[in-house]
Amino acid sequence: MQKLFGESLVIPPAYMYGATTRAVDRCQPDVEKIILPKKRYDSLSMNLSVDFSEAKFKSERTFFQRIIQNKSNRARPIDGLFCDFRVFSPENWAHIFFYHIPLACKLVDLYGEDIVFVLPELKNKKIFQLFELFNIKYIESNETFQGNQILFDVESFEICTLKRREWLNLRLPEAYSKLDSYHCALFPKKIFVNRRDSRKIINQDVRSFLISEGFQEIFMEDYDALTQIKILDNANIIVGIHGAGLAPLLLSRSESCGKKMVGIMPAVQVTSGFRLLCFQSGISWTGVRGKIESRFASHLLSTSPPPLAWSYQNFQVCVESLKRALKEPSEVA
Hints:
There is one protein chain. This protein has two domains: 13-40 and 184-327, Rossmann fold (3-Layer(aba) Sandwich); 44-60 and 74-178, no CATH class. Helices cover 29% and strands 26% of the residues. It has ten helices and 15 strands. Strand 3 and strand 4 form a beta hairpin. The longest helix is centred in the N-terminal third of the chain and has 19 residues, at 93-111. It is globular.
């Protein structure tokens, strides 16, 4: 039995800008400049053990389909150590960066290079590019496996939030070497990471303003995993809508001092997730909060969080708040 520890972490205060409003001054409306207080993340731990056992894939099939599958799905023996990573939504582009890849780097450091990670069969093959980038062995399968398995508490996966950059650093030098030899189109130093399917900015004046300021619009899903990483690593100023497309920022080089990110979030999706990520990666962060619509007001004033589905709805952004976020210093005096 081994135990991983994640020490508590405190991120410094940061600025967030809200839409122009008379809540600032009833006679002279102005952009809200909000100081987000420092935020503490409590220490966490994860228990690890090795046991000869079976690893079954828990699919979203119906109960009857699972019975048929289990009858015909005999356990496939696997040599050496393996770890079942078909948990905690590895198909989620943000999760694979924030949780699975960092933990895999740490487990390889503890148990050796021959450990094999079992991943589900996925349509998004970009996930597997990340394991190959870090030279981590994997199997893509929905089969049941049997052998010496590294077991961990799925409930303690959040420890990766505290330790992810430190664990990635164990294998980042080799990954950077591969990235440097990977040729792709050159991108500008100022980029706007936009979204197509959900959580889109309704008012087009935001896009027009950014393009007039020399930003290039990027839709991250148009590119393979390595190109996405290189796009964000190369940029000096990134304006992006909150979402998984910004996850590769976690792999930004530590020497990228001066890199700035302006994170745009709907009023019902204001979180510290990318603020923490940027702190861990040496990137300055400033937030821009979307306009508060009347239908959201009662939920935002409540102690209960708004429905999760609302965070994917399209929203409006005040251009003046974005201008201020880009112009003013990120660090709180």
